């Protein structure tokens, strides 16, 4: 892999009681890249993101971010260091306005100027959210909610953006739009780790991919190679 590694998972194991959800996975995320975590439901993809964020505790192994061990760190500290997650199911605050939800996303940012820059960036990528600023988030459509979830994560000015199933349940046209925005975010220098069922779309914008199967990585490599991998095509890509 080219480029400096910004995030590295080393022998990462996670247990939920007797169940081993992650069985010692190794993942390197180069700075400024898009890294895709693919696989079926229950493969351990979401668990991987939640462990990076500090929401789930690792039972063994290490998470190294910018040379520092963050394995046992609290989620707030991890967020403050520049890792933001847009969770599966969007999880926005329905009773707050779009603007208030975005402000919540900026809670780790202390400088007003940076917050202003984050608003400008978010509204550049998601002009619709500017139009809907005063609208209650609970009244948005599925696609708008997904945009808000990604935008809220961007409001913390992250170095690494973790996206969990950003295309889930969305119409194909909206999915295309969201993937093209993720590509733009990467071009601006933000590193992206994306968990997705939509393997084909994801590999088109990713630099590297890891395929998880029941807590283990069984295929990994450059996205341009994986997209042509017959095993992967049969298992995950279908005939799209």
Fold blueprint:
Layout: E1 5-16, E2 19-30, E3 34-38, H1 45-53, E4 60-65, E5 68-69, H2 75-80, E6 83-86, H3 98-105, H4 112-125, H5 127-131, H6 142-154, E7 160-164, H7 172-187, E8 191-196, H8 199-205, E9 208-213, E10 216-222, H9 223-226, H10 230-237
Parallel strand pairs: 3-8, 3-9, 6-7, 7-8
Antiparallel strand pairs: 1-2, 1-4, 4-5, 9-10
Helix pairs in contact: 3-6
How would you describe this structure to a colleague?
The protein is an alpha/beta fold. Helices cover 38% and strands 27% of the residues. The model has no long low-confidence stretch (mean pLDDT 92). The protein starts with a strand and ends with a helix. Helix 3 packs parallel to helix 6 (142-154).
Average pLDDT value? Answer: 92
What is the end-to-end distance? 28 Å
Helix content: 25-40%
Low-confidence stretches: none
What share of residues are in beta strands? Answer: 25-35%
The H/E string reads: EEEHEEHEHHHHEHEHEEHH
Q: Note the overall shape.
A: globular
Number of helices: 10
Major sheet summary line: 6 strands, mixed
Structural class computed from helices and strand pairing: alpha/beta
Radius of gyration: 17 Å
Q: Strands of the largest sheet, in order across it? A: 6-7-8-3-9-10
Q: How many strands in all? A: 10
